[in-house]
Prior knowledge:
Elements: H1 4-18, H2 24-32, H3 58-64, H4 80-93, H5 103-112, E1 119-125, E2 134-140, E3 144-149, E4 154-158, E5 162-168, E6 171-176, H6 184-187
Antiparallel strand pairs: 1-2, 1-5, 2-3, 3-4, 5-6
Amino acid sequence: xxxxxxxxxxxxxxxxxSMPKMKNDAIQDILTRKAVVLEHHSKKKTKQxxxxxxxxxxKQRREMRLFEIEPEQxxxxxxxxxxxxxxxxxxxxxHGLKPDVQPHMVQGKLLxxxxxxxxxxxxxxxxxxxVGITGIILQEFKHVFKIITKxxxxxxxxxxxxxFSLEIDGFVSYIYGSKFQLRASERSAKKFKLKGTIDL
Length: 200
């Protein structure tokens, strides 16, 4: 083991070689404090930005036929269980649909509810050929409903200039398609205003 003098000489020599620009007096001043603070600059970690997964464009979805229902699947009976699920969903949403419930409350809930699985009927239309079409809503888009009828025919009914009726547990609600031209996801966040009279 080295003696104290040798150790002192080693430390002095080491500091002179490590800090050549510093004078001997300054080095001795540091040593008398018996504490040497070594500066350390930590490297800032660069946060890696998460890459957002890009979905398909509308054109790509059309080309891949993602939303098309195969002809062999276009059968009314296949979608009756979906209708039963929808009825239970609406009952839960409206707290049981009791006889003393306020009709405007049910109407307000239905305006924001998901209509996939609902049975609707076109009651009024500027195009007479649409009147009387009844079926289960399979798909809802911004401007159209895709409805499967009891005759196993898939009908594309525009919302514009059409009035739809919807019945559940004795409650009949009317949907004015011209005021309903929204996607289901957008409709759930929209505030609908009560209006006295609405015409086609």
